[in-house]
Amino acid sequence: MSEKNGVEETADLRARGWKAMRALMPGVFPEGDVDLRDGRLGEDLVDIGLTSVFGTLWAREGLGPRDRSLVTIALLIALGAETELKTHVRIGITNGLTQDEIAEVIYHSAGYAGFPRAVAARTAAREALEP
């Protein structure tokens, strides 16, 4: 990415972020550059995630979406970030992970992140996969 000025760079990251988010969560967001701000405290946080996480990290070529989902699920388990984990379990399914593979990540995390984190992750994953 060439940086001509901050505005152009941000626009490029937003476009890449939207492309990645729509691929990971089909049908969730309308087409176009949607304003994610809601007028409440911390309203720019989602926009920061759009550009920095999805526009920069998920748009990279080094790993495919399926592998990024495996890594992300494991990291969110280790962090105890169940809210985000629910979203990324669904994204993982979109990216081709099976429920058995997600369960294996949870089992594996018990040895590295601890049993309580794995139990919380199992609960979050079950909730995410409920119809």
TrEMBL record:
Gene3D superfamilies assigned to the protein according to its UniProt record, in alphabetical order? AhpD-like (1.20.1290.10)
Q: Which domain of life is it from?
A: Bacteria
Segments forming domain Carboxymuconolactone decarboxylase-like: 54-127
Its recorded name reads Carboxymuconolactone decarboxylase family protein
Q: Which organism is it from?
A: Streptomyces cylindrosporus
Give the organism's phylogenetic lineage.
Answer: Bacteria, Bacillati, Actinomycetota, Actinomycetes, Kitasatosporales
